Amino acid sequence: MKYRLLWCFLLLLPGNATGAESGLIQTIPVERTRIYRTKATFLYHFAQFSLWPDKAFEGAETPLRLCLLGKNPFGEALEQLKGKTVHNRPLEIRHLPAGASAQGCHIVFIGAMPTQMLQAALAQLRHQPVLTIGEGEDFLRQGGIVRLVEEGNRVHFEINVTAARRAGLQLSARLLRLARIYEEKR
Fold first, then answer.
1. Alpha-carbon distances of 96 from 105, 106, 111, 172, 184, rounded to whole Å
2. How far, in Å, CA of 37 to CA of 28, rounded?
3. What is the pTM of this model?
4. How far apart are CA 111 and CA 62, in angstroms?
């Protein structure tokens, strides 16, 4: 059942997730381009299967802000998300340098950065209604919410449910069934 849900989740991917499309940055190996197109699609679906408290938005017209903090590993893969909406809100993508404030963001992908900067970024967002996503091995242990994991040429994800609750986010049961669940040690 879990694999059937994952297959259905992957079928929802917008566009062609094979990475065979033309016009992508040629310096990125085709396999990396495919993986980051898949990860970009995951970001979009995480937004669709998450709910934020009303206080997270200034008003009904406020866009849902997806921010990239630090190094951007996606290249042009996020272009597939332009013009999309989530929960009747336009999806807005922002690129922020490492060390910048992610205030006003609803989803923050934290790219590669030194450990101290990562810890500071997660500490700043710890009790905010922000869905934090990263790739580092210690990302969930440090308080991140979603970790994207590559195994072979596949992408899986893990969710820190304690951190999600602390942020005031509601994650869909369908999303949680597809994830590996990480529980913080008290």
1. 10, 13, 10, 28, 28
2. 12
3. 0.84
4. 25
